[in-house]
Amino acid sequence: MLEVRNLRKTFGDNVALDDVSLTVEPGRMFGFVGANGAGKTTTMRIAMGVLESDAGDVRWDGASLTKSRRADFGYMPEERGLYPKMKIAPQVAYFGELHGLTPAAAKRAAGEWLDRLGLGDRGDDFVQDLSLGNQQRVQLAVSLVHDPKMLILDEPFSGLDPLAVDTMAGVLADRSAAGVPVIFSSHQLDLVERLCDTVGIISKGKMVAAGTVTELRRSAGRRLRVNVADATPGWEQTLPGPATSCGDGEWLVDSADDQGVLAAAMAAGRVVRFGYDEPSLADIFREASA
Ligand SMILES: Nc1ncnc2c1ncn2[C@@H]1O[C@H](COP(=O)(O)OP(=O)(O)OP(=O)(O)O)[C@@H](O)[C@H]1O
């Protein structure tokens, strides 16, 4: 289990992280979301020991992280980190050896991961000759080649086509199912909602919400969605709570009085839609980041 506790980090006067904590449990996929500059990369860099925090600590399985324990982690940095003029298969194997695999084991694992990621026939190509999306697959192979105990990935899905997204998502889900804690940052909230057990929302250096998507939905509060065909204009003023128009006669109503909303709608005309509206992660994100 990875525990990030009370991190603080400043760059000059800029407070990049202010008391940031999060936990990634074994077999869980944690989606780390936040606007540009919110502090995701800084948090992950500190977790990987690339950057030092001013305060707070990072623990792995209950103990402080040391360099050698971090060697068991797989990391996809935001700035990536491949050698453009080196061939793909030897490069992935080289990173495996850096993490302690024997040359034979590293070569075998590199071949297996490149096959799995759809690059089995590109092993002799130079990295610089691959498309950006394929370079990203190689970067994923590099982060996985040594069978890491923890995966930390900075925007692994950015710039990938839908098929590559599916491949990447499948690999991460497999690793997570095998018990590996996985944390990744992303701006693709639909993807995070689909893949992650737990989500953390960071805004201006502070964690403003964390939990399962169900928990976040519950705390965001439910609203009623109602649509009345041919209603008299202004009927929404009879509702027992503030209403926001969604267009085409549909309204979102902030009210715990569901029967009161239904009664007002029925009095206004023919009710063609009525029910609770589950906020999407995008809705929750907008609210939490406001
Ligand atoms: N090396 C650095 N020197 C100075 N300021 C930095 C440095 N790295 C990050 N920052 C600042 O720290 C804050 C957090 O940046 P960070 O890169 O962690 O955000 P992020 O959430 O990863 O953003 P994005 O989604 O754009 O990648 C920003 O204000 C950024 O300008």
TrEMBL record:
Keywords: Antibiotic resistance, ATP-binding, Nucleotide-binding, Transport. GO terms for cellular component: plasma membrane. It is a peripheral membrane protein. Signal peptide: none annotated. InterPro entries: AAA+_ATPase, ABC_transporter-like_ATP-bd, ABC_transporter-like_CS, ABC_transporter_ATP-binding, DrrA1/2-like_C, P-loop_NTPase. The keyword Hydrolase does not apply. One of its GO terms (molecular function) is ATP binding. Residues 2-229 form the ABC transporter domain. The keyword Nucleotide-binding applies. It is found in: Cell membrane. Pfam families: ABC_tran, DrrA1-3_C. SMART domains: AAA (SM00382). Its main location: membrane. It comes from the Bacteria. One of its GO terms (biological process) is response to antibiotic. Belongs to the ABC transporter superfamily. PANTHER family: ABC TRANSPORTER ATP-BINDING PROTEIN, ABC TRANSPORTER ATP-BINDING PROTEIN NATA. This is ABC-2 type transport system ATP-binding protein. It comes from Stackebrandtia albiflava.
